Amino acid sequence: MKKLLYLCLMIIVFLTGLHANDGPDMSELVIYTEEFPPLNFMNNGVLTGQSVEVVKEIMENLGCQNEITILPWSDAYQKLLNEPHVVLFSTCLTAERKDLFKWVGPISTVDMYLYTSKDCTMQFSTLEDAKKAPTIAVLKDYASRSILKEKGFDNLVEYNSIQEVLPKLVNGDIKLFPSSNIVMKNELSKLGLNESDVIKSVLISSEYEFIAFSKETSSEVIKAWQETLDELKMDGTFGTIFSKWFPDEVPPGIIQIFTEQYPPLSFSENGQITGYGTEVVREILKDLGIPDNIRMSSWENGYNLCLTMPNFVLYTMKRTPLRDDLFQWVGPIGSNNTIFYAKKGSNLTINSMEDAKKVGKIATCSAWFSEQDLKNAGFTNLVSSPDPRENVRQLIEGEVDLSIFTDITIPDIAKEAGYSIDDLEPLFVVSSGDFYIALSSDTPKHVVKDWQNAFKKMYKDGTLKKLYDKWLPNSTMPEL
Fold it and tell me: pTM of the prediction?
């Protein structure tokens, strides 16, 4: 009997050993985070927060029982830089940090918005709209102040503390205030104010928080953590955790999808994102069984994220030689002509690019392919702004001599700016080409292939043609 019991015990030990060796060794990982509510913080002696809950869920699924230690950010970051087996969350993935560490995520988002009172009667849908506000409250020495200054805001009024600003924002004495969603939620709670008292007006910029690992961490460990996180996103566990802490936010998916206000290709209408490009992307998402988490942003913000982030989609994007190796491409989903426009009756004649270089000023939109192409062609007379409607206004009011738009979008842009396409006249076709859905260079090849195959299916079964005729009836659909 004893021999039988001993044999059974040995079998159990053997099988347990086999199970322990099934995955990579996690025992050496030293895991840190900082005090940054509501992502990571101590509550009555217990470490909690949205990111903490996600990380603990990953660890539990992997059988990883390592402790999580809170350290000041600068101390933990130095350990991540200089020591092996270190894990630090929540760490923002930036272009500067990208190659310093290995990454798992995203696990949360930090979005900077311009907030306003829920009772504010003024409408702000873009940063250019916000520049027309009487004043915008900012905090001295805060990054948000510097960002707005760099974007050309001259209506900023400085305050000493967020505690001074928020009550005035809620009661309407302050019209706009820039803050991250994380800080806003936390500070409103501390002041006993309701989150519903303020609303997000304009998205300024987005950052995605990841779990960062020391560069020497094995690829097997990274793969195990990332696959476990993705499983939590697919089975709904991640979404449940995220909505508990951020009920009004869009949780980061396995793939992030951004677009801009660029009718008729993509635009927000009655709080819903729509347009030709949006409907094409949604057909692909439906075919692939991917949740719809499309977000509206400035082009500049989305473009910079797509340059840095893995598994990132940005639509619609003109494919140019300058961009060709920066992204991966699905499409082409449409064609357009890029044209120099002048105010009607200007008596200006442009017969070549050299003629255009000699005019006083040309309005361009920040990070658009047209601005990039003109800079690359040696133009030094460009006036850049983040909103194409501002380009129309500058043209009509005589602040610039030319502006550059595509033929399929300028009618809507002019209308949104308060003018008509009849107020403009096309002078010179700069280029013709196709636009695509762009995926970041770090997106796995098989994902890009799946998207392209789903697009081909749309093309062949006639779905794309129906959408094209609905949204772009006066344009020619490109060949596959």
Answer: 0.84
Whether 292 and 381 share a structural domain: yes
CATH of the domain at 335: 3.40.190.10
230 shares its domain with 291: no
With a pLDDT cut of 90, the percent of the chain lying above it is 80
The residue from 219, 245, 271 where one domain ends is 245
Per the structure, the count of domains in the chain is 3
Note whether residue 250 is domain-resident: no
Partner residues linked to 334 by β-bridges = 435
Q: Are 337 and 431 in contact (CB under 8 A)?
A: yes
User: Do 124 and 157 share a domain, yes or no?
Assistant: yes
Q: Is residue 324 part of a domain?
A: yes
Within 118-255, where are the H helices?
Answer: 127-130, 143-150, 162-171, 181-190, 219-234, 237-245
Do 150 and 221 share a domain, yes or no? no
Asked if residue 219 and residue 96 are part of one domain, the reply reads: yes
**Mean pLDDT, rounded, of the chain:** 92
- pLDDT of the residue at 11: 46
Of 7, 40, 19, 24, whose CA–CA distance to 102 is shortest?
Answer: 24
pLDDT at 28 over 50: yes
Same domain, 93 and 223: yes
Round to whole Å and give the CA distance between 413 and 434: 19
Are residues 212 and 199 both part of a single domain?
no
Asked if residue 212 and residue 202 are part of one domain, the reply reads no
Residue-level pLDDT at 387: 86
226 lies in a domain? yes
The whole-angstrom separation of Cα 367 and Cα 33 is 35
pLDDT single digits (tens) 330-363: 999 999 999 999 999 999 999 999 999 999 999 9
Range of the domain at 362: 255-480
Tell me phi and psi for residue 119, to 5 degrees: -95, 5
